[in-house]
Amino acid sequence: MPRNNPETVLDSRYSDSEAEALEWPEAARRLAEAELFWVTTLRPDGRPHMTPLLAVWHGGALHFTTGPDERKARNLARHPQCALATGNDLWEEGVGLVVEGEAERVRDTARLSELAEAWAAKYGERWRFAVADGAFVSEPAGRALVFAVAPRVAYGFAKGPFGQTRWRF
């Protein structure tokens, strides 16, 4: 799992003169509170595939689900590198965050049970999952694989003042 104190750098090339680096604990808090994320995976021919999804920040990693036959699951089976992004669509306020890393399938029953509780706590009973055979299960959706992405590098894009922070883990 990532360090709690990654190397933090404000990139002055893309930052206003009064901008300050966003501290990692604040970025992690925003990841934990964000409701909607966009995941980008790589198709077999290298083209990007991007789709919105729900994610839970838990134990120093972002976790998301996908059906075993969905495009992102098939992509991750070949190329586990991916990026998850969250933020708002306003130009001059808020913070956009991007986490890059390698998606690792979560199969451990105890860990999946913890994550199932985290999903229900964050998103409500509609998103309560049971755990069976190394995956989440629910009706009527069926089986969902769970992936964890621990950041290798992450970026924060502050707006107003504009500032780009990079965290290396």
Automatic annotation (TrEMBL):
Repeat is among the record's keywords: no
The keyword Oxidoreductase belongs to this UniProt entry's keyword annotation: yes
Highest taxon of the lineage: Bacteria
Keyword annotations: Oxidoreductase
Matching Pfam families: PNPOx_N
GO cellular component, one term: cytosol
GO molecular function term, any single one: oxidoreductase activity, acting on the CH-CH group of donors
Record-annotated Pyridoxamine 5'-phosphate oxidase N-terminal domain positions: 25-149
Protein name listed in UniProt: Pyridoxamine 5'-phosphate oxidase family protein
Organism per entry: Streptomyces boncukensis
Lineage: Bacteria, Bacillati, Actinomycetota, Actinomycetes, Kitasatosporales
